[in-house]
Each structure stands twice: as structure tokens, then as C-alpha cells.
Amino acid sequence: MAKNDQINQRILQELTRDGRISNLDLAERVGLSPSACLRRVQELERSGIITGYRAVLDRQQMGLGFVTYIGVGLGEHTKEAQEAFERAMQAAPEVVECHNITGTIEYLLRVECADLPSYKRFHTDILGTSPYVTAITTYVVMGSPKDLRA
Description:
Helix content is 39%, strand content 20%. It is α+β, with helices and mostly antiparallel strands. It has a four-stranded antiparallel sheet. α1 packs across α2 (23-30) and α2 (23-30) packs across α3. The chain starts with 5 loop residues before the first helix and ends in a 10-residue tail after the last strand.
């Protein structure tokens, strides 16, 4: 397992900001030689701390600028109900995140659509047809002054 020291933390911070940074630039920013930096990055990947690299997309430019978080409550708390709901969310392209959470509801979703009418279709045709869903609370994102997701 990779050690969790300050240098590795700085490497992870820089890679989170820019996953395409060259090893030479990364080494310079964290104060290591390029070979030592590369060894550390490879160890972070091998140990599973770094699980991949992603492109950050401009959802507005892709026509997916209507973003909501949805709290979903289920009427049954069975394994069957959870698995059926999770399968339905896996199949829905509008759902970009699905989290099983604790509290008064069972799931928190992040849904991205083109506009309000397309969200209404998702709400009616996907969530509204699930036999286990008994509560839906939608929060429309008006802005994201901080978003560190890659």
C-alpha cells in the first residue's frame, strides 16, 4: 500500500486538479525528481488509491444543463426493492450518480437533463413507474460555486 505522506497528498491534489499534467511538471510542483515522482504515481495507481483518470465535461455545452438532486424514499426496505430500484437507475442515462444513504430517505440521485420538460419525463416515466418509490423530493441546482468532482 502506498504511504500516505505529505508528498503523496500533494501529488494527489495536483492530479485531482489536472489529471493530464506531465510527470515533469508534476515533479516540479511537488518537489521531487521526475523518476521519484513517477514511481510514487505508479505506486498510488498500483495500490488502488488512484483508480482512473477522467475528462471533465461541460454539461451545458452537451445540452444537459438542467441538474437536480433527488431524494427518493422506498416503500419497502427489502433487498429486492433496493436491487430493483438500483437496476432502474443504472438503466436511466439521466442518472449520473446514485447513492444509497441513511436518514429519512433511501437514495440520493444526481440527475442531468436538457431542460425542465425532459426532467418531467424522467420524473414521470422512470421514477413514477417504479413500484417501490413512495417519496420524491427534487432540488434544482441553480449554480455550483464549488464542484471538485472529476
